[in-house]
Specification:
Blueprint: E1 2-5, E2 11-14, H1 17-22, E3 32-35, E4 39-43, E5 53-57, H2 69-90, E6 94-98, E7 108-114, H3 128-138
Antiparallel strand pairs: 1-2, 3-4, 4-5, 5-7, 6-7
The structure holds zinc ion (ZN).
């Protein structure tokens, strides 16, 4: 079991956070953004940045190469729909996509929106870590970050 501190300060103990969220055991603050047969999308539960969406598989797998053909095509389709909603609903012009396999949890893709305020943390991918740390420490009071509109 791992202990995880959520964006609202609450601590939870889970074996796999992705399983817990996709299975409805942990309810993310921003709620579910979208759900398909194979994937679950939600506002990130740790970093309170509006429109920071995590797309996770429902199956407990680690790598892209473990996805079935149907999961792969559903993944691209779902990712594009969320991207469209980020653009149309939240006006997000640029998004960074990040996915790592050496996670204690399972397959999930980060869709990190790039906002103007992030430029002071650097250009491009180098700014991602300081931006996330800033969000975790400084942005927790903003209640609007909890709101993610459904596509
Ligand atoms: Zn899992």
């Amino acid at each position: 079991m791992r202990e995880i501190t959520l964006s609202d300060g609450k601590k939870i103990k889970v074996e796999c956070l992705s399983c817990a969220i996709a299975g409805g055991i942990v309810e993310p603050d921003g709620g579910k953004v979208m759900e398909t047969e194979f994937f679950h999308a939600h506002q990130d539960v740790i970093y309170p940045i509006r429109g920071l969406v995590i797309l996770t598989s429902k199956r407990h797998v680690k790598g892209f190469d473990e996805l079935t053909e149907r999961e792969k095509s559903n993944y691209i389709d779902t990712l594009s729909k969320i991207r469209k909603a980020q653009r149309n609903v939240l006006g997000i012009e640029n998004v960074y996509y990040f996915y790592n396999e050496d996670t204690p949890h399972h397959f999930h893709t980060w869709m990190i929106p790039r906002y103007d305020w992030m430029t002071r943390f650097g250009r491009s991918v180098e700014s991602v870590k300081p931006v996330l740390q800033h969000a975790r420490v400084k942005l927790n009071h903003e209640k609007n970050v909890q709101k993610v509109k459904k596509p």
